[in-house]
């Protein structure tokens, strides 16, 4: 999709604030600093629209970006905040779980993992959880420019194995620096959202 118009419709803390109007939604999830804002900005052709590096301790919200009046990108707050209290972490987990498990317009989730590392415990939990709820899932390995192209297969195998992905489960190497993978991520979104 050629994107010209994007609006942050709402930073929601509760389900009653989620937008209605029936547009399909694609959620993006991953641990903090994985490159989620950079992926969103690449997809919508902006330099710094989605905020970068969510700050630990800040109020955690689900950010709904209306893209071309056709689809919402739902920015799920980064998980793995060491600095947030246990209580805050639980409430935050509950908000995400409720959204992901009950939200009707949700058509798919993009799970971001770092191309350079083995998936973390949190990545694995998130993957298992999304698989359990049968939510269409695309795994995107971020910051691929930081590893040599010759090592991409190795990185993919490690991530697939770490997450326990089936061979047919979709996986894409991505870089916000080189835009590698942008078209394929868009293709997946368009397919899931039936655009
Ligand atoms: P978020 O916390 O998941 O939203 O992560 P950000 O998008 O803010 O990215 C975290 C850091 O990683 C920033 O310093 C980015 O510049 C850097 N980063 C994100 N994506 C890429 C990428 O594809 N390649 C490289 N080299 N750095 C990236």
UniProtKB/TrEMBL annotation:
<keyword id="KW-0132">Cell division</keyword>
<comment type="function">
    <text>Necessary for normal cell division and for the maintenance of normal septation.</text>
</comment>
<dbReference type="Pfam" id="PF01926">
    <property type="entry name" value="MMR_HSR1"/>
</dbReference>
<feature type="domain" description="EngB-type G">
    <location>
        <begin position="22"/>
        <end position="195"/>
    </location>
</feature>
<dbReference type="InterPro" id="IPR019987">
    <property type="entry name" value="GTP-bd_ribosome_bio_YsxC"/>
</dbReference>
<comment type="similarity">
    <text>Belongs to the TRAFAC class TrmE-Era-EngA-EngB-Septin-like GTPase superfamily. EngB GTPase family.</text>
</comment>
<keyword id="KW-0460">Magnesium</keyword>
<keyword id="KW-0547">Nucleotide-binding</keyword>
<protein>
    <recommendedName>
        <fullName>Probable GTP-binding protein EngB</fullName>
    </recommendedName>
</protein>
<keyword id="KW-0479">Metal-binding</keyword>
<dbReference type="InterPro" id="IPR006073">
    <property type="entry name" value="GTP-bd"/>
</dbReference>
<dbReference type="InterPro" id="IPR027417">
    <property type="entry name" value="P-loop_NTPase"/>
</dbReference>
<keyword id="KW-0717">Septation</keyword>
<keyword id="KW-0342">GTP-binding</keyword>
<dbReference type="InterPro" id="IPR005225">
    <property type="entry name" value="Small_GTP-bd"/>
</dbReference>
<dbReference type="InterPro" id="IPR030393">
    <property type="entry name" value="G_ENGB_dom"/>
</dbReference>
<keyword id="KW-0131">Cell cycle</keyword>
């Amino acid at each position: 999709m050629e994107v010209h118009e994007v609006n942050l419709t709402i930073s929601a803390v509760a389900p009653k604030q989620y937008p209605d109007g029936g547009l399909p939604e694609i959620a993006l999830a991953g641990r903090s600093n994985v490159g989620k804002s950079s992926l969103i900005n690449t997809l919508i052709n902006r330099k710094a629209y989605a905020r970068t590096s969510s700050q630990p301790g800040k109020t955690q919200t689900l950010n709904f970006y209306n893209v071309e009046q056709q689809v919402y990108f739902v920015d799920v707050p980064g998980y793995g905040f060491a600095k947030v209290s246990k209580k805050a972490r639980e409430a935050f987990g509950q908000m995400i779980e409720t959204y992901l498990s009950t939200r009707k317009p949700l058509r798919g989730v993009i799970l971001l993992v770092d191309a350079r590392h083995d998936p973390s415990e949190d990545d694995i939990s998130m993957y298992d959880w999304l698989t359990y709820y049968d939510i269409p899932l695309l795994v995107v390995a971020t910051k691929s420019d930081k590893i040599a192209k010759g090592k991409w297969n190795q990185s993919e195998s490690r991530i697939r194995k770490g997450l326990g992905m089936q061979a047919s489960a979709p996986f894409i190497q991505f870089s916000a620096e080189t835009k590698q993978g942008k078209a394929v991520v868009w293709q997946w979104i368009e397919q899931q959202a039936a655009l």
